[in-house]
Amino acid sequence: MSTRHSGLPPSLLVSEIDAARLDALIENPTWRGHPAAIALQEELLRAQVLPVAQMPADVVRMHSRVDCVDADGTRRTLTLVYPHEADSASGRVSVLAPVGSALLGLSVGQSIEWPRPDGGTLSLEVASVEPQPAA
Length: 135
Fold this sequence. Notes:
Blueprint (H helix, E strand, L loop, with lengths): L2 E2 L8 E3 H12 L7 H11 L2 E3 L14 E6 L4 E7 L10 E3 L3 H6 L7 E5 L5 E10 L5
Parallel strand pairs: 2-3, 5-6
Antiparallel strand pairs: 1-7, 4-5, 4-8, 7-8
Helix pairs in contact: 1-2
């Protein structure tokens, strides 16, 4: 499960289209009740949902390409995708992966932290966001 950096969670913005599609994903029998879907639902419940036209360009949405910098300065480029589109080798991260649900709705300059399997913590700061392709 992901956690947000620095005490209070950063504000979370989600487009109406992404919110509707993600709600449908969460309710799909394949994912309903799955811990990753529950974590995503918790993120969505605290999100401010905006019309697509009002979404700032620097906010991570579905299919956004995100340049991130980790704690040791390593840059990573990730694309936030639906589970069936995920491919870690090409940087396509599922919204149901801990880092994916944590990135959703963040804007440039915001950071996330989440636990690693070995007990450590990974940290990423959003450096830039390429807006999603047209819906």
